Amino acid sequence: MPRFVKKQSHKTGLAPGSLVMVGEPKEAAPRIRRFDFDARRVEERDLAAADLDLPPEAPPTVTWVNIDGLHDMDIIARIGRRFGIHPLTLEDVVNTGHRPKFDDLEEQLFIVFKMLDFDPQTDHIRSEQVSLVCGDGYVVSFQEAEGDVFEPVRSRIRKGRGRIRTAGSSYLAYALMDAAVDRYFSVLETIGERIEDLEREVLSEPDRETVNRIHELKRELIYCRKQVWPMREMVGMVLRSDSDLIRDDLKMFLSDLQDHAVQAVDTLESFRDMLTGLMDLYLSTMSQRMNEVMKVLTLIATIFIPLTFIAGIYGMNFKYMPELEWRWAYFGVLALMAVLGIGMAAVFKYRKWL
């Protein structure tokens, strides 16, 4: 349940703009990385907390500052003072329970979206909130922990590929959102492979664990849909914004990003329908197997009912019954009954009727 709803009760009664992290606490110190680049050069370095209090340098074309870790409120406050970020915006940054959103703050753009990945330890979808503050010539990105999907963007900056080093800060913000959406499709491919495996299992040899796996994957789809669906709305809001920070030539890229987000949502809806169909198929398969079992058992019962009827009328009280004179007949019959019962149970188990 904490993945779906993050606890915010400890913020009750605090003044607006109070910096209190909502999410899982981290022990490692936050990491601050800075990229300064233009068409001719790029500089990459790690910053210490004390560097945030130094006066701003002569800005290049674009500055990108990325903070990994939101649990140090002193560093978050220093970042806010350095780039002139409003306290209410900082409050939203450290509240990791936000849905994807977009705010036009006139001189800045504030963007929140979710980054998805599969956690190999829990085998569940893991979501991380990413917040972007985009201004004239700079982008500040906030992440919950170190590790992201932005390495291709960093590689393009280092190698000067494409237009990322010449298209301004808003294009960098678009590139970061595009990297997150591209990762959505990688996660969806994994979900699709699992659905195919479940389909083969349902058609071949379904068991009690099959329905549990279907329900578990359905929960993962619900969780994934909760993160991806608002992304489509958020990109649409950015596309319709009249902010001067969003250049006209960027809107074509934003439109393409919105198409990708819509495609991801459509894929999720298709997967949900497929899982619903798998559940119906599982129930139909189990019902069919039950009918086959009942048919066999009915056939056995039909054969033995007349025999039991005859034995019930005449009994076994005949005068000439050689078994009555055997010394071990009683124990032999008991052993035969035990072997017959265990044998039938073994046959039922082998045929997966039990």
Secondary structure elements and pairings:
Layout: E1 31-37, E2 42-47, E3 62-68, H1 73-83, H2 87-94, E4 101-104, E5 109-119, E6 124-135, E7 138-143, H3 151-159, H4 169-204, H5 208-240, H6 251-314, H7 329-350
Parallel strand pairs: 3-7
Antiparallel strand pairs: 1-2, 1-3, 4-5, 5-6, 6-7
Outline the structure in words.
With about 350 residues, the protein is an alpha+beta fold. It has two domains: about 20-285, CorA soluble domain-like (Beta Polymerase, domain 2); about 315-354, no CATH class. The chain contains seven helices and seven strands. It has helices at about 75-85, 85-95, 150-160, 170-205, 210-240, 250-315, 330-350, and strands spanning about 30-35, 40-45, 60-70, 100-105, 110-120, 125-135, 140-145. It has a seven-stranded mixed β-sheet with strand order 2-1-3-7-6-5-4. Strand 5 and strand 6 form a beta hairpin. Helix 4 runs antiparallel to helix 5, helix 4 (about 170-205) packs parallel to helix 6 (about 250-315) and helix 5 (about 210-240) runs antiparallel to helix 6 (about 250-315). The longest helix has about 60 residues, at about 250-315. The two termini are about 35 Å apart. The model has no long low-confidence stretch (mean pLDDT about 80).
Keywords:
354 residues, seven-stranded mixed sheet, alpha+beta, 7 strands, 52% helix
Task: State the CATH topology of the largest domain.
Answer: Beta Polymerase, domain 2
Largest sheet, order of strands side by side? Answer: 2-1-3-7-6-5-4
Instruction: Provide the number of structural domains.
Output: 2
Share of helix among residues? 40-55%
Main β-sheet description: 7 strands, mixed
> What is the chain-wise order of helices and strands?
EEEHHEEEEHHHHH
Report, as a whole number of angstroms, the end-to-end distance: 34 Å
Subunit organisation of the chains: single chain
Radius of gyration (CA) equals: 33 Å
- CATH class of the largest domain equals Alpha Beta
Q: Tally of extended strands?
A: 7
How many alpha or pi helices? Answer: 7
Derived structural class: alpha+beta
What would the average pLDDT be, to the nearest integer? 80
| Sequence stretches where pLDDT stays below 50 over 5 or more residues | none
CATH superfamily membership of the largest domain, which one? CorA soluble domain-like
Q: DSSP strand (E) fraction?
A: 5-15%
